[in-house]
Amino acid sequence: MPVHSANIERDESLEADLEAIWAEIEPPVVRRLMIAAVQEFAIHGYHGTTTRDIASRAGLSPAGVYVHFKSKEQLLYRISLVGHQRSLEVLAEAAASTTDPLARLRAVVSDFSSWHARYHMPAKVINYEIGALSEEHFLEIGALRRRIDAAMRVTLDDGIEQGAFVIPDVGGMALALLSLAIDAARWYRPAGQRTPAEIGTLFADLAERMVRP
Predict the structure, then answer these.
(1) Backbone φ and ψ of 193, nearest 5°
(2) pTM
(3) Mean pLDDT of the region 29-45
């Protein structure tokens, strides 16, 4: 989903955050291409972006993308794979941080929401450009998304088993909470009134109210 370019210009000041997501990607030129692609996809959408646009933003020749990626779709896939892996790690670490069911739910919702706000640019791309993936890659990313859903469901199920939550529809509640967190990537702006941490706390408060007996 393309966003107004003026917002992206403000986002470019968050270069350190973009670098942080791909910190383990080597060589550095591949990391530069992934960051450039995220920025271009966020501005123009996947279909509105050319490999020449990506190479130019990365400071490479027009054919620079094809030295490291077979296609533009392959680049989107790599971004989607790493992005979903990172967001799953955030959720899993939050779920493992405590055995108290309410504290665990708050941590899961807060950390997952904060991640999508702080890293809103890649989060927008991995969640709203997923339809551009090949069938094979779509299925692989879909498996990661199901693991994210399953992790949220386990958190909710544990709370029900311990008598801390009353949830008539666990699947629906998991969908609602994940959608709430993910959508922060679409509307969050660095110049807005709330920081990513504040958004996480707000959404955790809402989640607590939704599951309380």
Answers:
(1) -80, -20
(2) 0.88
(3) 93
The whole-angstrom separation of Cα 152 and Cα 174 is 6
Orientation of helix 135-161 relative to helix 170-187, angle to 10°: 120
> Could you give the CA distance from residue 168 to residue 127 in angstroms, rounded to a whole number?
27
Q: Cβ(111)–Cβ(91) under 8 Å?
A: yes
**Count helices and strands in the chain by DSSP H and E runs:** 11, 0
Instruction: Give the chain's domains with CATH numbers.
Output: 5-68 (1.10.10.60), 72-211 (1.10.357.10)
C-alpha dihedral (11, 124, 40, 31), degrees to nearest 10:
80
Half-sphere exposure of 98 (CA within 13 A, CB side): 10
Q: How far apart are the first and last CA of the chain?
A: 38
- Residue for token pair 């529809």: 169
Percent of the chain with pLDDT over 70: 92
Burial bucket for residue 51 (CB in 10 Å: 0-12, 13-18, 19+)? buried
Closest residue by Cα to residue 112 from 94, 139, 130: 94
Choice among 9-13, 50-54, 87-91 with the minimum mean pLDDT: 9-13
Residue (of 115, 113, 122, 87) closest to 15 by Cα position: 122
For residue 204, give the H/E element and its range. helix 196-211
C-beta of residue 64 within 8 angstroms of C-beta of residue 82:
no
